[in-house]
Q: What sequence folds into this?
């Protein structure tokens, strides 16, 4: 059985009114160097966003979030940042910002499957479990 690999992750926060400092979690950035894995998983909840700011432009915010996922994936359509090595793209994605879309501090973890760890983090720290 393979040994668990270390990874780093940050939560993507949407702060629709920066001056108020209120935010909702909208995604996760996960980087696992040993498995050469960098990805962003997103789940923006427009109802929760409207609770913080009814005037927030959900479509524009989603477009900016989608650009983070494209940068994580890299490739020719992602501009200069998308051409950087994974480590540098991760550091760019997690650099502190004072804009509407902000990363949390970076946290460590260990996993056997980075994609499964990303899905787990998205479910537990971004999406709200709906109990029936």
A:
């Amino acid at each position: 059985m393979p040994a668990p690999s270390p990874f780093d992750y940050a939560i993507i926060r949407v702060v629709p009114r920066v001056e108020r400092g209120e935010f909702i979690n909208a995604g996760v950035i996960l980087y696992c160097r040993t498995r050469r894995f960098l990805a962003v998983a997103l789940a923006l909840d427009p109802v929760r966003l409207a609770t913080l700011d009814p005037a927030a432009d959900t479509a524009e915010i989603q477009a900016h979030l989608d650009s983070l996922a494209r940068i994580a994936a890299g490739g020719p359509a992602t501009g200069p940042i998308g051409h950087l090595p994974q480590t540098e793209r991760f550091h760019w994605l997690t650099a502190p910002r004072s804009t509407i879309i902000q990363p949390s501090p970076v946290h460590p973890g260990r996993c056997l499957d980075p994609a499964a760890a990303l899905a787990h983090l998205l479910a537990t720290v971004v999406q709200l479990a709906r109990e029936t």
User: Anything to note?
Assistant: The radius of gyration is 15 Å.
